[in-house]
Target: L-2,4-diaminobutyric acid acetyltransferase
Amino acid sequence: MELNKAKDNVKIRRSTKKDGAAVYQLIKRAGTLDLNSAYCYLLLCDMFKDTCAVAEADNRLLGFVSAFRRPDQPNTLFVWQIAVDPETRGLGLGKRLLKEVTARGGEEIRYVEATVSPSNQASNRLFRTFADAMGTKLDVAADGYPSTLFPPGMTHEDEPLLRVGPFRYKGKQEHAGTTGQTKETKPLKEGFGEQRTGNEKRRQTVHAGI
Ligand SMILES: CC(C)(COP(=O)(O)OP(=O)(O)OC[C@H]1O[C@@H](n2cnc3c(N)ncnc32)[C@H](O)[C@@H]1OP(=O)(O)O)[C@@H](O)C(=O)NCCC(=O)NCCS
Model:
């Protein structure tokens, strides 16, 4: 597949249960992510379709994001996993996937969170550039999931919690319909963001690993 051609053709849409198997394979070849069960991806793609999205071109799955609204903080969208096919990375698909699931929440979503290992430069950069696109800041919380919380004998990096926000969606929602029809997401800068002062912009904090 020619990358430039793929970039032009890629559609972002809601996931369906038919995507589950391909998502499992995508996460497997992504390399750096914890691979969950095939059943887990089926369930996410089906029952969490309103907060999950896939990127596809020519019937090939090129990207996936799974997210959910935190039950304890409904104004916060927690991004669980995001992956782009190694052949189509660096083309903006990761950012488009994040925009898609955030836009669907409309004004109710004020924050996006994710835990990202310090060594994952691509992912840290993705959330940083996403915060910029939203016209807001990125903070790294003191907590998150440190390596000590994982089972004994399992080597796992710390998972610091990144928090992007606050932001407010101001425009009309533009996203894929529930039927799985494909529709491109409107660029965020047209619909998101808050006016911030120079001082607020300078307060933006990012993880040292970015
Ligand atoms: C993280 C990932 C989803 C990013 O997807 P992507 O489509 O390549 O990202 P984008 O093209 O939208 O790029 C977003 C930003 O990250 C930057 N970026 C992308 N890959 C990068 C890399 N390897 N190193 C540094 N920065 C990188 C881009 O330059 C862009 O920043 P900019 O807008 O300031 O130029 C992808 O690298 C991936 O699938 N990695 C493996 C799975 C993974 O680690 N997921 C995250 C777990 S939390």
Observations:
- Residues 30, 32-33, 82-84, 89-95, 114, 116, 120-123, 125-126, 129 surround coenzyme A (CB under 6 Å).
